[in-house]
Amino acid sequence: MRRILSLIIMLMVTIVVLAIVNLLIGSVKIPVTDICRILVGDSSESEIWQNIIWKSRLPQVLTAIVAGAGLAVSGLLMQTVFRNPLAGPSVLGISNGSALGVAFVVLLSGKIGGVALSRLGYLGDAAMSIAAIIGALAVMLLILWIAQKVKGNVTLLIIGVMIGYLANAIIGVLKFLSPEEDVKAFVVWGLGSFSRVSGDEMILFVALMSILLPLTCLLIKPMNLLLLGDRYASNLGLNIRRARMLVIISSGVLVAIVTAYCGPIMFIGLAVPHLARAIFRTSDHGILIPTTAFCGAALALICNFIARMPGFEGALPVNSVTALVGAPVIAAVLFRRRKDEVSE
Q1: What pTM value is reported for the model?
Q2: pLDDT value, residue 311
Q3: Do 261 and 37 contact (CB within 8 A), yes or no?
């Protein structure tokens, strides 16, 4: 237990250091002492620097922290309930549902109304966020209805993948029928970004995730029982179907909100649970849920830092960076697990 506490403290310190590094990095060089003065409310600093910190860099840091934590916990929930190491937040087509909702706003609204909502500034951004949430929740409700009809996790998993393919097919048709400018806007949204959220949107996003993430801790006991197998968990008094639905709802809501605000962010939900298990060497979700959230926040900050490193014009797409960072993490964990199995 002392080892785990030490690792948690180290992880929290790492998050603080990465947050400071992300505040320092940018096209405008701001000394760390001036950043500290701005954060404590010193109004004597340059107004330009204050705007850069308060309206750009700090919102990006907070968005990356809560989005990374939310996606990581969502991935952990999915991998546990399906007992599949390759399950992730997008496994049931929920992310694809969000993308389909945004596709209707970006690609179809211009064709029907003459002006795409994505070009209407804040109104367009709000419409895209609402459409993403509606699309994700619609797919989630469909999955919950199917979950009541089927018993096997594998069957539900396959149906979820098929729903994702169906959503992608509809998006492909909409792309084909839409003007090039609208297709470009949708593709840019699909690359994912932590910089879209600012001002009141950022406050609402962080507040929602700060409420939802602690609520996932209520699933610790059911998740630990699910690890024992359905039959044994049922004998211990767990309602398997109810527990499965609660996990799907929790994971789906987290994914829906993150996707609505940041776009589809890949690999974090898939890679981070493996990383947390490898670091803390436990299957107890009382430890894994908070530590996975911390690891997700740290990895998201690393990806945001790489995307905004000096030398890049503007910022790299976050999904490109998460794939570059996440794929080696998964490969290393799987190789290490295989090595341990061979040595045993």
Answers
A1: 0.86
A2: 55
A3: no
